[in-house]
Amino acid sequence: MQNELELFNKLASKLFEAEQTTPVAPPVPAAQLFDELDISLDEQPAADFEEILEKLVLNTPRTATRLFFNQLFGGRNPKATLGDLLAVLLNNSMYTYKVAGPQVGVEKEILRQICNLIGYPETSDGTFAPGGSMSNFMAMVMARDAHNKKIISHGVQQKLVLYTSAESHYSIPKNAALMGVGREHVRFIEVDRFGKMKPSALAEQIATDLADGFHPFFVNATAGTTVLGAFDAIEPLADICQKHNLWLHVDGAYCGSVIFSKTYKHLVSGLERADSFSVNAHKMMGTPLTCSIIVTKHKQFLHHSFSTNAAYLYQTDGDDYNLGKTSLQCGRRNDALKFWTLWKSVGTRGLETIVDQQFELATVARDYIENHPDYTLYSFNDSISVCFNYKGIPAQQLCTALYEQATLMVGYGTFNDDEFVRLVTINAGNNKADILNFFSVLEDFVSENEVMLASEVSSETS
Ligand SMILES: Cc1ncc(COP(=O)(O)O)c(C=O)c1O
Questions:
Q1: CA 186 to CA 177: how far, in whole Å?
Q2: Ligand 1 mean position to 132 CA, how many Å?
Q3: Nearest-atom index, ligand 1, CA of 292
Q4: Could you give the count of Cα atoms lying within 13 Å of 379 in the half-sphere of its Cβ?
Q5: H or E element: which one contains 135?
Q6: Cα(195) to centroid of ligand 1, in Å?
Q7: Beta strands 418-424; 409-415: pairing state
Q8: In angstroms, rounded to a whole number, what is the distance separating the alpha carbons of residues 13 and 422?
Q9: What crossing angle do the helices spanning 336-370 and 78-90 adopt, rounded to 10°?
């Protein structure tokens, strides 16, 4: 293994150097992928293994650089990366105390601290899921099984319906299909002009469904919608859920980390009333993917929905330390350690600084846009998604051209009838200069490629 570690260090150094000199790796067109890179697997071992590996690493999109704004993650937090490297080296599976030992404590400590930050009672608990979509899935399954405790043995026999905003993540309808509720039984509730779910529209839809003989069981609120980064107002939704005895889940995959900030925690006020809450530390906290946490106020439902006995596996220690009793998977990688190494090294106050930095960078971006007349702003305050158009250039053309010419990685989104560039200030390793650099790179690109961009637009519209 020592040889591989030396190779790892060598490759890491080359990558760090490349990230500095060429923050955007020139994309390998998918059609040419196998011509340009030796990816094929053959009968015989590769003679030039190291060389091939280096080429693969250096041609992979660079998500840790100051020009990567394409997704709801970015940057590289060194302490969290160290934790994940150690998790790989240790290679535990988190299902039992017997094989994960103190790593179980690491996971439990994170879950307890998060429950405490929310203000959940001692009856709360949680687990790590393989991503925000699966955290939502677990919440939906718990809600379904809490609504009707016989479902886990008899299957779904009622006309169940669930509610989420029109701006929520696509995992909600996908999960509805996976869990036997059905995509057609997802009610997409209208949002206001800021992209937040309208509580009055929710209440009306529930009344209609009840009158039509449906069984409402679940409401999903979003803390940071995927495109606009909007926060649904939790209190009025909690009132409605309380009235109708519905499970309220808050999907904080994107921006649930505001719980760490005294300044921004108000964006999820009322969170303690939600039955469950999920947050992706691999988004705002900047840990390596994936690091997705789901907590619920009702530990008993976590057990009810996910606990299954397996004599071959659970042979020592109690359920409290055999975390496989409350997880989605059986074998499960240690996603907690990377968040723990980060948290332990900077403290909760350090996590707060990470959150606050992202909102400050978003303010820098919005201020820039509002002070430059060639820009139109489409997003709102209290969000780390900054959505805009520049000189009326269609966002799709602009983002694609920036990517194809290895200039900048940024994506586009839509809200109502508008399509726009979505700049996400989620990399807390960035500073104000990096955000201003984003705009100057974009503007230089447009001025150098104005003719090309204009011709692409006219050929699309003709
Ligand atoms: C609001 C929201 N929920 C859920 C998810 C899904 O998270 P994951 O990609 O970890 O499955 C996302 C991803 O962007 C999201 O924005």
A1: 9
A2: 5
A3: 10
A4: 32
A5: helix 132-147
A6: 17
A7: antiparallel
A8: 31
A9: 150
Q: Residue 130: which of 320, 318, 290 has the closest Cα?
A: 290
pLDDT tens figures, 381-407: 999 999 999 999 999 999 999 999 999
| Residue 447, SS3 per DSSP | helix
Whose structure tokens read 């909600």?
A: 172
Ligand 1: list residues with CB < 6 Å: 72, 131-133, 136, 169, 171, 222, 224, 226, 251, 253-254, 280, 290, 292
Atom 4, ligand 1: which residue's CA is nearest?
A: 132
Q: What is the pLDDT of residues 157-201, one digit of tens each?
A: 999 999 999 999 999 999 999 999 999 999 999 999 999 999 999
Whether the full predicted model's pTM is greater than 0.70, yes or no, is: yes
Residue 254 CA, ligand 1 centroid: distance in Å: 6
DSSP code for 233: -
Sorted by where each starts, the structural domains of the chain and their CATH numbers stand as: 2-65 (no CATH), 93-338 (3.40.640.10)
SS3 49: helix
Residue 190: the pLDDT is 98
